[in-house]
Each structure stands twice: as C-alpha cells, then as structure tokens.
Hints:
Largest sheet of chain A: none
Strand content of chain A: under 5%
Oligomer: homotetramer
Number of domains of chain A: 2
CATH superfamily of the largest domain in chain A: Tetracycline Repressor, domain 2
Number of strands of chain A: 0
Order of helices and strands of chain A: HHHHHHHHH
CATH class of the largest domain in chain A: Mainly Alpha
Largest interface: A-B, 45 and 47 residues
CATH architecture of the largest domain in chain A: Orthogonal Bundle
Structural class of chain A: mainly alpha
Amino acid sequence: MTSDEPPPSRSSLRQERADTTRRQLLDAARDVFEEKGYRATTIRAITSRASTAQGTFYLHFENKEDAFGQVLAEVWQGMLSMVDWEWEGDPREITRSAVQSVIAAVAMHPGIARALLEGSLDNETIEARWMASRAVLIERIAELIAKEQSAGRARDLDPLLAAHALGSMVEWVALNRYALAPERHAPGVDAMVDAVTDLWYHAVYRGHGSG
Amino acid sequence: MTSDEPPPSRSSLRQERADTTRRQLLDAARDVFEEKGYRATTIRAITSRASTAQGTFYLHFENKEDAFGQVLAEVWQGMLSMVDWEWEGDPREITRSAVQSVIAAVAMHPGIARALLEGSLDNETIEARWMASRAVLIERIAELIAKEQSAGRARDLDPLLAAHALGSMVEWVALNRYALAPERHAPGVDAMVDAVTDLWYHAVYRGHGSG
Amino acid sequence: MTSDEPPPSRSSLRQERADTTRRQLLDAARDVFEEKGYRATTIRAITSRASTAQGTFYLHFENKEDAFGQVLAEVWQGMLSMVDWEWEGDPREITRSAVQSVIAAVAMHPGIARALLEGSLDNETIEARWMASRAVLIERIAELIAKEQSAGRARDLDPLLAAHALGSMVEWVALNRYALAPERHAPGVDAMVDAVTDLWYHAVYRGHGSG
Amino acid sequence: MTSDEPPPSRSSLRQERADTTRRQLLDAARDVFEEKGYRATTIRAITSRASTAQGTFYLHFENKEDAFGQVLAEVWQGMLSMVDWEWEGDPREITRSAVQSVIAAVAMHPGIARALLEGSLDNETIEARWMASRAVLIERIAELIAKEQSAGRARDLDPLLAAHALGSMVEWVALNRYALAPERHAPGVDAMVDAVTDLWYHAVYRGHGSG
DNA sequence: TATGAATGAGTCTTCATTCAT
DNA sequence: AATGAATGAAGACTCATTCAT
C-alpha cells in the first residue's frame, strides 16, 4: 500500500479480463486468417477458436475487415521493424538487408500474406491500406537510389520507376515462392535473397568491372 | 455451301446451334469476368448476358472454374502469342520485347488479369494452371539467360533463380500498375517498359562501362 | 386438337407450376402477415407455411416489403372495389356506402390492416404507398363535398380539410375498433357505420331542421 | 439546506445519487424515443446519451417497455393537463378547446406520439395503456355529449359511439398531420383546429340554421 | 439441346439482458 | 448503486447447382 503503484482499480481488473478476451480473439483471428485466408474466414470460426460468443467479437472489432486490419498491424509491426533497415553502410549490405526483410516477413507468415492479397482484391479498404504501405516502402527505396546517385554510385535511372520495379520484384518473388503454391519445393530463403540482391545490385549500381 | 456438301444432318444442325450457344456464353463470361472479377461473377450474370437459361450454362461448362479456364485459354492464347518473342538479335531488344509483351498483355485485359489473381486465390485448379503457365515463361527466360551466358554476354548467375526474379518483376509491375488500383495515374506503358528493360538488362548483362 | 387453343407449350406448363408456387407463397404470406403482423413475420415462416424452400421466396418476391406490397395489392383490390362507390344518388346513402366500405374492409382483414400500420412505421416505402392511397381517397371525398356544395346541399367548409378530417375519422375508428385491441367487444359493424355516417352527414350537410 | 436539516445519512446521499442517475436516464430515454421512435431505440443509445453504463439502465427500469411507460407518464402528464378542459361555457368553445388540446399535444411531441403508435403495435402492455388512456378521454367526451343532450343542445345520438368517432377524428388527424409524414406541408395547427372543430360542432349540435 | 423453377446451405450483425466485481 | 464485458438467439438474402419437362 505504501508502494507507488495504485491499488488495482475495479476497472483495471475488468480491463484485464477484457484484454485477455481481446487477445484470445486476436490470436484466433490470426490463426484462422493464416489457415483459411480472408474470405473463407468466418466470424464464427474465429469466436469458436477463441471460445467466445459470436457477439463478443463485435465488442472488440467492428467487423471482419477491422479484425484483419488489427491482425495485420501486429504482423506488420514485426515486418516493418524488419524493414527498418540500416540505410548507412555498404550498399550491397543495405540492399541485401532490404530484400531479406521482405522475403523473410512473407516466409514467416505466408498465410497472412496470402490473405492480404486476397483481402485487397475483396475489400477496398484493405487494398488502400496495402497500397499505402507499399507506397512508403517504394518511396524509401527511391530515396536510397537517389542518394546513391548523388554519391556517384548508382546509375542514372528514374529513382521512382526503378523503386517500383525493384520493390515489385522482391514482393512478388516472396509472395509467389512462399505464399502462393507453397507446395513447390522452393529454394531456401537465403539462396533467393542472394539471387535477388545480386540482380538488384547490378541493376542499380554502376560499373562493376566484369560482374 | 451450295451443293457439294451433304445435306446437313439433323445432328450437325443441332451441333451448330450448340456451338452458337457456347460462343455466346463464352463471350458473355469473358465480359463479365473482365468487369466484375472472379468471385463477383455469378452464373446468373453470365447466362443473363448471353440471353440463355441458367441451366444451359451447365451443358457447356462444368462450373464457374471451368468457364473461367476456357475464357482464360482464349485470352491467354492472344497473350501467349505476344509472348512468342524473337529470341535472336540484339540482347537489349530481346529483353525489351519480352518486357513489353507481358506489360501490354496485362494492360490490354486488366480485368481478366485481376480475375486471374483473384481466381487463383479462390480456387486451387486455377492457381495450378497459372503457376504452370508461369513456369513455362520462367523456363524460357532461364534458357535465354543460359544462352547469353554461353555466349559470354550475361553475367554469372543462377539462370532459374534470376528468371524467377525478373519474371516476377515484370509481372507484378504490370499487375500492380494496370490491373490493381488503376486509378493511380500510372506512368505510360512505354516509360514503364523502358525502365524495367533497363533494370533487367543491367541486372543480367555484364560489363557495360559506366551505365 | 382441332380446337382453337394452342397445345400447351412447355413453358406454359412450367408457368402453371410457377403460378401455383407463387400462389402458395402469396397465400401463406397473407396468412402470416395477418397473424403475426409486419415485423414479426419472417421469410422462414412464410416459406415454411407454403412448404417451399427459403430461396424460392426470392424467386417470386424481391423481399419482405415487396411480398407485403403484393399481399396488400390483393386485399386492397377487394377494398378498393368496395370503395368504388356510387357517387350518384341520395347523399346520405353515398356517405353511408363510403363509411361502410372502409370499416368493412378493415373488419374483414384486421390483421392486414394492423400490419399495414406497423409496416408504415417500419418502412418508408410502405408508408409512402399508404399515404398515396389515402391521398386518393381523401381527394375523392373532397370532390364529393365540393360537388355537394355546388348543388347547395353541403355547408360552406374547406373541402380538403374536411375530407382529411372525415376520412381520418372513419379510418381511425375502423382501425381502433377492429384492428387494434380486438379483444374489446366492439359494437357491431352496422351500429358503428350508422353512428359514423350520421356524424359525417350532419357535419357536412346544411340545415336539417332538428336532427 | 443550511442547518435545520439532519446531516444527510449515507443512504440518503446514495438515494440522491440514484435519483440523479434516474433522471438522466429518463431524459435521455425521452430524447431518444422522440428522435428514433420505439423500435429503433436501443438501450445502448439511451445509456450512451445518459453517460451511464448499460447495466445501470436495469437498475431503474425493468426493460425498454417500462422506460417508455415512464417517459410516457411524464409527457402524458403534460398532455393530460392540457386536456383538462373547461367543461363549462360556450359549447363551441368547449369543443374547440378539446380539439386544440389534442392536436397541440401531438404537435408538441410528434416523435413520442409516433413512438406511442409504434410501441402499441409492438407491445401489448403499451397498447393496453394507450387504449385505457383513450378510453378515459372518450368517456369524458361521451359525458359532455350526454350533458349537452340533457340541455337540449346536442342532437339525439349515441354518446359513446359518437365520442369514439369524434375522438378518433381528432386523434388521427393530429397523428397523421404532425407525427406521421411530417414532410408534407401540413396546414397550420390553427386552420386544422378550426376545421375539425367546425365539423365536430355541426355533427353534434342541433339546428344551426344554415351553417 | 434448352429451359428455368426450385433448392438449401451458409454468414454477418444487432441487441436486450445478465452478472461478477 | 454502478459498471461494462459477455452472452447467444434470431433473420434476411445470395447463389451454385439440379432436374423434370
């Protein structure tokens, strides 16, 4: 009682309960989206896995789209932190780190990545969110290219168009190899990262002797 | 048509009718898929546009997936013929032609391209077909790279992995820019083709002075 | 076969079937609306009573509102034909006939009348339909009053306002006595008609000695 | 308030709190019923407007029906006091006053009036309350008519039936014009009151020359 | 071959009410 | 007295597919 923590108020206890429920729902949602994809995921499946009444879902989310958004935010959180590249240092390493981040993120949550694709085709809000997210990434790539051009290291190409193309390359390679047709025995993440990094590097950087 | 043909048997007449109906359905299906996408397309919408009864659809197609497959076969036909690149000549021109083919094909049938993506996420058969189709394309790219390597023009890289990455780049750029979010004021096809070709070329070919 | 009737075409046979189904649904809808009112009536209740699948309902009606509209049209049909008064003859008889028509119509289908009231409060389309229907009736009453004024028989009063008030009187008496609170032992239709007619007559017509 | 009162006991303080809460809820309920009508009013909307938890509602009311009843009691209170006509004086003025009271009451709380109608169709208890309330009013009208008949002023008609009809006329005119379809450019309250009064008067009172 | 009426499974969402704290 | 999280029942509507004619 003399400690600097306030006694747990009535509301904080309830809050704790609510948070638990919310977490159960969010975890369940993540799992179901991962397994079933966006459209095939039903509210009932989520609440059922979370051992909750259906109505409880709507206490914590507006609707399926909202729940997916929150699941994405969490997974994205991890992905974005990975994407928080070091922009300083060896160009090749920077490139590699960027490529690695994206591919690893998709490889880690292939079902969610696939659901994102599916959700975007089904729901304009999800599409808009994703496109906005992509735009940020591409913008950063464009900035990197521009900076390297200023330093005389990168070739003379339109930074934004190049960023679009290179970002697309990484993204689609990742989605195709790890989120679509996952039955194929894809090459390991590392080999893929190496190959893509190599292409990216030579596409952007100038004169490297013989390659 | 005048006399040297046997009088059309009853069955051939019937066959002719059936072919007409089939064609109407196929045209209608193509249009509706283009407009609505895969999931949003209903059998009723197709038969309605074809001025046919709903049941008639099932005389000519097994189900929606089958109809989409047949639509795709026709459109693909056109797309693949465009992809029938000239593999001889100036490497840069070969590259450009390949890039151009893919982007133009998507730009010409954006709705179908989007529906293909959507259908693949919804239906394993469609996904498998697409993946098979992709594999052919990628295989050809890999062969091209290998050949250029033999000729000493291309750098030393894994042809298949590189083909995957480069094919993905072109494909996803095309889909993103022309089939998804088409409201964005995308750069013209030509500018995009130039930019992608340039990246591809420098990524693959060796030593080009300063770039 | 030699008669002038065409042999029943395939479609007419099917049409007949469809008409039967439609009739079953319409009858069922009328009964359920009559029993349960507007809101409490569910599609399932209707199709269940009609021994039909739920989907079949939507083959014949757009939705509940539409079905109610069609039920109303039939019942209304009967009511309107009753309301197709003779506008010539003894003023008192005209008045009586009008009053009688409305009250009898409600007394004959009290549940539907109640459902109409309920539906109007729930659904703007239904409300609009009813209001339009009322407007016609009131307009006719107003015309009658105006005519009687021209003939020097009716008092000098605003025909439209009077029509509103008198129409409301009949309508609400009917609804209250026969559609709401039907548990009360209401006076017989005839006594009510007499009383209302008498009030109406004296309210409108001029100088009748002592009454 | 200053000193001659005993110090408020803990329970009376609590009571005071409760009364405040109750009042907030009642005010909120009145406002929401007025705005949304009976069915569309949710407990959540009421407690939300009252800045109260949902559970609190059930400490003060049994359910929605009960809350509406209490709201009605308050509003009715006001309405009934208006209906506390002067039963002495010029017959025409008495009539006018009665008509005016009803119409003004509805015009003052159109939403509540509409909700009453709606609630009556939804809930037997509300319907019974209303019917009981109506009965009192009609009874008084009947008494007035009987009295006027004794005085030789009113015509020879069944007082109760006439009261039903005349009460209905006023009530339904008011509800229609001011609580339902309020978008119509209704005639002003005064014009309507005049017209209805005029009809009522001539319907009931005897021999007034030419009108 | 063509018809089109019939089927019925499947899903989101709202809301009055309860109850542990 | 107050809280507010949790409950779970209830209902409209779509659509791929079948089948008797």
